[in-house]
Specification:
Chain lengths: 247, 787
């Protein structure tokens, strides 16, 4: 499917932040080869909230890994500004992750030996133009629990610390892999609110992977993946606030 | 292969680095145990067989001269099974290729009957041919040192007369497994040998026809050597008997026994230490490895495997390591044991010294290895098995942490996040930190021991040859002589200084204890054979009284102020009571010193000397030695440099080999411990570290998190290791405390530096490996659910 054809108005007035062309990832070789990504063309714009949907094995996570500079494609190009992540060195990709990308994981992946504030400060100490850790935590409504260790926080709180950690560097891109996968509905909503707020207030391109089709309603754009290809995309006429989501 | 075994096999392949490290450490302990125990076993069984087949005597006595007719009376002493009278005389040997005079002992071979005791083993050539004159047999050590072969000529000075002989054979005797000049602790086989010739030939030269001056006896089973010796002394007193002694005082026997004692000390100390470290490390490593398999154990339990099945499955983990260690350890132990045995053959002369594997040691080694592995597995599996399956299958909740001690006291601001993580992690897992520190400390400690051994031997030699003996060489006279005999020697070329020496064989007795040795008398303010106190200051010899070495005082149980009974064993054989005035430091042999005049007064023979010590102009040394060869009164020469060189080639070579082997093992262990700790820490923290990489930390920054922690542990472990190592080394080295040799534990900065450098290098290389591994960390896995 032609990405140009799918360009829809509004947010796409500025040039794309990430531009994938013919992005292909093959695992293994010979008859056992698996094409996890199969020639994906995709433009992602600043400030967009994008949800990736698709069954297991459709290539969502592989695509997210490519967007986050964790992996290099077998073929194709992936541009972040003038940096082609498909050809970038390990050091360049590390720098890209460090300054431009925020990750939110399904299982939070906080450093258990650091408090909430320190988990965030870990990033702010190495990023180029970070916000104050406390500010980041306030943004996710955790201003009160700064000095708690992960073991003293609930799952939802831990995930919000993870979001604060991800956005404290003011990343251009926020990548979330099943951020509510391990949480109940109420806590999940609180986490989605935090993500939505970051996207809205900071204008961060946000890409969320989910199995939960309901979450798609809060996105600007929903991309369906199937067998490593973009099956179809749609643009929501209106973003539904997380609080209004029901599952 | 069952599926569990397949899992085991794949897990082991995945952890082959750690598996090999554990097996190597354990293997080192096993190898050392097997090597030393087998060497002892080889020496003991070989000696036992040799003594039995060649009928090594039980009692020995040297005398002036006794008629043959006395033999039946001696044989009738209750408890005596066999008697062999013979002749033994000190001779000077003229070797054309040798600058200095050589000397030796000539022993008689009876012509009318076979040798009943101390039978000879013909290594090369043949026995003495009946009826043929001018033949002799030569001890192997002397023959080899001087490259003598059967058929070669050899000139001896028999009773001052030069006589040409031809070598019939090169032989061994159970009396000289270790061959050295009497009273000398270090051998010089070039200048001292033992020779055998027909009794009639030697009797003629020394006017001993129909007489004997040396006697060896074999005792009946159960007979008391002490009673026989006492009776012999009584019967031989009139014939100049110099005091009978039992096998336990036989120089060669004592030397081999002491060597076995030292080996035994080492073979208990070192391998115990190594096996303890190996067991400890195996235990810790397996515990941590299996903790990583928490979820897998839960899944197995959820599938319905019983705790017992799971324990057996993981026990196989440990047993694979133990088996690998056993194969490596036994192989290395046997190979190194062979090398050691070959080396011991250099200075212990047995007809054959074969490596004999000590199977009991192998069994012990395997048992210890298996137990260590089993204990490690049991602890870990028990811990995992306690967790209900459902709980264990959920990802472990975040571990509880709190600010580290340094932060609680207000220093938190100075800490980087990586340092904070490291410190809190250490406090969170105190047991793990303790085990890691203990493992690293033991690895450090192991390195101290072999080098302490080396430094102690160095100190011993320095003490003996630089502090005590300041002369270049000693000369012994054929018989006690007047000091005038030395004036000729004083005029030889190159002599810078001469000091007279009077040595008198005596038996020192205090209470029930006694020792037979030579009392050495020198001028009060001697510059040559100095008497040194424990502060390494020279002691001035008092005008009367004895100074004995600390070891002799200990053996006799005597202290300064005590009155010792001295029974002289030559001349008029006076028995006197002499006060012990001081105790001297001496690291080899047993020593008793007196002032020259004081000893001569006791002996009542007027001014007499038995030898002299010399310092020489180095440029004229060869000329001096050549001139010495023509002086008939000179019986022997002992040259400090020759002894030193000889020592380097034999004893030092064996000590060095053992020391290097141990050191190599210690280095392997140090690397194994450090490497395994780094690898396991990495495995335990893989997810955390991968997360850090994902969120933008560089490889080096991520490595720092881990390495700061390992670094702190290493820094804590090192001083503890040095302390423990000093303790171990002191215990093991100072356990080497025999009448032949005492080793003071010497702990040098060089030793410590080496241990620290080795552990630091191991840590550095392990850090590189960790960095390499961090480079290969699966970042994507961090995004997935924890396994």
């Amino acid at each position: 499917m032609n990405a140009e054809a799918l360009r829809l108005e509004s947010t796409e007035a500025s040039p794309p932040l990430l531009r994938a062309r013919g992005l292909t990832k093959v695992y293994g070789s010979g008859p056992a080869a698996v094409r996890a990504l199969d020639g994906v063309d995709l433009d992602l714009y600043p400030g967009e909230f994008v949800v990736l949907l698709g069954p297991s094995g459709s290539g969502k996570t592989t695509l997210l890994n490519q967007l986050g500079g964790l992996d290099v494609p077998t073929a194709g190009d992936l541009w972040f500004g003038s940096l082609n992540l498909a050809r970038a060195s390990e050091a360049e990709r590390t720098l890209y992750r460090r300054n431009a990308v925020g990750f939110v994981f399904q299982f939070y992946n906080l450093i258990p030996s650091l408090t909430a504030r320190e988990n965030v400060a870990l990033i702010t100490e190495i990023a180029a133009r970070p916000m104050d850790p406390e500010e980041a935590l306030r943004l996710v409504q955790l201003g009160e629990r700064l000095d708690h260790f992960p073991s003293q926080l609930s799952g939802g709180e831990q995930q919000r610390v993870a979001i604060a950690r991800a956005i404290a560097k003011r990343p251009a891109v926020l990548l979330c892999d099943e951020p509510t996968g391990a949480l109940d509905v109420r806590t999940g909503v609180a986490v989605l609110e935090a993500i939505e707020r970051v996207n809205r207030e900071l204008g961060t391109l946000t890409v969320v992977i989910t199995h939960n089709a309901v979450i798609a309603d809060m996105a600007d754009r929903v991309i369906h993946l199937m067998d490593g290809r973009i099956q179809h995309q749609r643009r929501n006429p209106q973003r539904v606030p997380p609080r209004a989501l029901q599952w | 292969m069952s599926l569990l075994d397949l899992k085991l096999w794949r897990d082991l392949q995945r952890m082959k680095g750690q598996t090999l490290a554990v097996a190597l450490v354990m293997g080192c302990g096993l190898a050392m145990l097997i090597m030393t125990r087998s060497l002892i076993h080889s020496l003991e069984t070989t000696r036992q067989t040799y003594y039995r087949t060649h009928r090594f005597a039980d009692v020995f006595v040297q005398l002036k001269r006794a008629p043959r007719s006395l033999v039946p009376r001696l044989a009738a002493i209750p408890g005596v099974a066999a008697v062999q009278p013979g002749i033994a005389v000190q001779v000077t040997v003229d070797l054309p290729g040798l600058d200095e005079p050589a000397s030796g002992l000539v022993r008689s071979v009876p012509e009318d009957r076979p040798m009943e005791l101390n039978r000879l083993f013909i290594r090369r050539g043949r026995e003495l041919q009946p009826g043929r004159r001018g033949e002799l047999l030569v001890s192997e050590a002397f023959a080899e040192a001087n490259r003598l072969q059967p058929g070669d000529p050899l000139t001896l000075l028999l009773n001052g007369r030069r006589q040409e002989f031809r070598i019939a054979g090169v032989v061994l005797s159970p009396e000289i497994i270790f061959e050295a000049r009497p009273g000398v602790s270090l051998p010089d086989n070039r200048t001292y040998g033992t020779f055998w010739m027909w009794e009639s030939e030697i009797a003629a030269a020394y006017d001993l026809e129909g007489a004997f001056n040396h006697l060896t006896l074999m005792l009946a089973p159960g007979a008391s050597a002490q009673a026989v010796c006492a009776e012999l002394d009584r019967l031989l007193q009139a014939h100049g008997g110099r005091g009978a002694h039992a096998r336990a005082d036989h120089p060669s026997h004592v030397r081999v026994s002491d060597e076995i004692f030292i080996l035994r000390t080492i073979s208990i100390g070192f391998p115990t230490l190594f096996l303890a470290v190996a067991a400890f490390m195996t235990h810790a490593v397996l515990m941590r490895l299996l903790t990583l398999q928490r979820e897998q154990i839960a899944i197995l339990k959820a599938f319905g495997f019983t705790d017992a099945q799971i324990v057996v499955h993981y026990l196989k983990f440990g047993l694979v390591m133990a088996t690998l260690a056993a194969v490596l350890g036994t192989g290395a132990g046997i190979a190194l044991g062979h090398r050691l045995v070959a080396l011991y053959h250099l200075f212990f002369r047995f007809p054959e010294l074969h490596f004999r594997l000590d199977l009991a040691a192998v069994a012990v080694a395997l048992g210890v290895g298996a137990l260590a592995a089993a204990a490690g597995v049991a602890t870990a599996v028990r811990k995992a098995a306690r967790v209900p399956p459902a709980e264990a299958m959920r990802p472990e909740p975040p571990a509880r942490y709190r600010p580290a001690w340094m932060e609680r006291v207000g220093w938190g601001a100075y800490l980087s996040p990586a340092a904070r993580m490291a410190l809190r992690n250490l406090e969170r897992h105190p047991a793990q930190a303790f085990f890691t520190v203990a493992g690293l400390a033991l690895a450090t400690a192991l390195l101290i021991v072999p080098n302490c051994f080396r430094d102690s031997v160095d100190l011993l030699l320095g003490f003996q040859w630089d502090v005590v003996q300041r002369q270049d060489l000693n000369v012994g006279l054929v018989e006690p002589n007047s000091p005038a005999a030395l004036s000729g020697l004083r005029r030889l070329p190159g002599v810078l200084a001469v000091e007279p020496i009077r040595a008198a064989p005596a038996r020192l007795r205090f209470g029930p204890r006694s020792r037979q040795l030579a009392i050495v008398a020198v001028p009060a303010e001697t510059l040559h054979s100095r008497v040194i106190n424990k502060h390494w200051r020279q002691l001035s010899l008092p005008p009367s009284g004895l100074i004995v070495s600390a070891k002799l005082a200990e053996v006799l149980g005597a202290r300064p102020g005590d009155l010792l009974e001295v029974e002289f064993l030559e001349g008029r054989r006076p028995v006197c009571h002499v006060p012990l005035v001081a105790v001297s430091e001496d690291l080899t042999g047993l020593g008793a010193h007196m002032e020259l005049q004081a000893l001569n007064r006791l002996l009542g023979e007027g001014d007499r000397v038995t030898g002299a010590s010399f310092t020489l102009d180095p440029a004229q040394r060869a000329a001096f030695l050549r001139a010495l060869k023509d002086i008939p009164q000179v019986s022997w020469v002992s040259i400090k440099d020759s002894l030193r060189a000889n020592f380097r080639q034999t004893t030092a070579a064996s000590i060095n080999l053992i020391q290097r082997m141990y050191l190599a093992f210690a280095v392997v262990v140090a690397f194994g411990v450090v490497y395994n700790n780094a690898r396991i820490s990495l495995a335990e923290r893989a997810r955390e570290l991968a997360t850090l990489r994902v969120i933008g930390f560089t490889e080096t920054e991520v490595a720092a998190v881990l390495l700061i922690e390992l670094g702190i542990l290493t820094l804590v472990a090192m001083p503890l290791g040095l302390l423990a190592g000093s303790g171990f080394a002191t215990a093991i080295v100072e356990a080497i405390n025999t009448e032949t040799v005492r080793l003071p534990a010497v702990l040098t900065l060089r030793n410590y530096s080496f241990a620290i450098a080795t552990v630091a290098t191991a840590a550095f290389l392990s850090a590189l490996i960790v960095l390499q591994r961090i480079r290969r960390l699966d970042l994507i896995a961090a995004l997935r659910a924890p396994e």
